[in-house]
Amino acid sequence: STAHPFYGTGAQAGITTPVQRYSVFMTFDYTGVGAADLQVLLARWSAAIAQLMQGKTVGEVEPERVDAIGKDTGEALDLEPAALTVTVGLGPGLFTDRTGLADRKPPLLRDLQLGDTTIKPELNGGDLSVQACADDPQVAYHAVRALARMGKDSGSAATRWTVMGFGRAAAGKGQSTPRNLMGYKDGTRNIFEADDLDAFVWTSDGPEWTRGGTYQVVRKIQMHIENWDTDRVSDQNNVFGRHKVTGAPLTGTQEFDEPDFAQQDASGSPVIPATAHIRLAAHETNGGVKILRRGFNYTDGINQFGFLDGGLLFLSYQNDPAHFEQLQSRLSRSDALNEYITHIGSGIFFVPPAPREGSYIAAGLFA
Ligand code: HEM
After folding, report:
1. Residue 344 is part of which domain span?
2. What's the gap in Å between 195 CA and the centre of ligand 1?
C-alpha cells in the first residue's frame, strides 16, 4: 500500500496529498512548561510520525522485559501504511507569555473573529491539532492514539476534542469527487492547480520557519440530516445551486461545467438562486477568494432525541485566515444551507512546512 514521505522541502503531508478515505482529527491543550517542553514534544511527535507513515510502530509492542509497558499499543501491527499522513498544527494559545514565544507568533495566527454563537465550548480551540488521514481507519486512529499517549506521558499535551471522519468529502487533484452526507458531490471546484496553491494556500512571507506553511481552519458542522431528508430534491438543488446526481451546476449538464451566475429563467429569476451555497462561496462573487477544502463526513451516532447525528468535519487551508472569515461571514448571513446545518466546533492552527530529514516540525521556532 502507499506510504507518503513525512520529511521534505515543501508543505507537510496531508494537505495536497490525494484525500484518503478516513480521518481522525484531534486537538490538544499544551500542558508543558515554557518553550522547552513544546520543543521536545514536537521533536518526539515528528520522529513518531515519520515511523508511523512508513507503517512502523513507535517502539516495541512486546518489550524484552515483558513486565514493562509496551511503547506501541500494537493495533496497527500487520496493517500496511495505508497512505497515512499526520499533519500537525500550532494554535494561537502557544504564542503567549506562558511559553515565552509571543513574539514568534506566525504573523496571521489569531482566534477566528466571526461572532459565532453556536460553537460548543468543549469543541472549541486547542493549542495543537493533529489530523491523521489513512485508507484504513485503524491506522489513522493508531497514529493519533500514539501521539496522545506521548503527550500525556510527558505531561506536555492533554486531549481536548476530536472528530472521527468516516468518509472523504473533498477531492484532490485527479480524484473523482466524493459526496457529503447530504448526497452532493463535494470538492468539484476545489483548488487543484499549483498557481492557486501559491496564491491562496502557502504562506510566502513571515519568519523563515513559517514560509511554505499554511493556516488550517477546522469546523465541526452538524447537519440536520433528518430534516434534509424530508426536503424535495428540487429544493435541495436550489440550496447548493447544483444537481444532486451529476453534480452539474443548475446552469449546466456536466459536473465540471462552469456555473453561469448571470443566467436567468423565463420569469427573470437567477437560475442559481441568490442564496445558493455555490453562488455565495464562488470566487467570482466573493471578491476573488479561494480556499483549499479537505473535509470528511462524520457521525456521532444518534443524539439524545433519537435523531441521526452526523455532519461535515470541514477543514480548509489558506494563507490568510481572513479569507475563511470573509467567506463564512457571507455564508452565515444568506446561505440557504443554514436551515440544515449548525457549526458546533471550531479551531484555527498554523501548519508549518514539513521538516527536513533529521529535523522536526517547527524546529526554526526554537532557533
Ligand atoms: C462548494 C457543501 C460548508 C466553502 C460546495 C459544494 C457543496 C458544498 C456540495 C459544491 C461542490 C464543490 O464545488 O465543491 C457544503 C456543505 C457544508 C459546506 C454540506 C456544510 C455542512 C462550507 C463552508 C465554506 C464552504 C463553511 C467556507 C466558509 C465552499 C466553497 C465552494 C463550496 C469555496 C466552492 C464554490 C465554487 O467555487 O463554486 N460546498 N459546504 N463550504 N463550498 Fe461548501
Report:
1. 22-62+70-100+109-354
2. 21
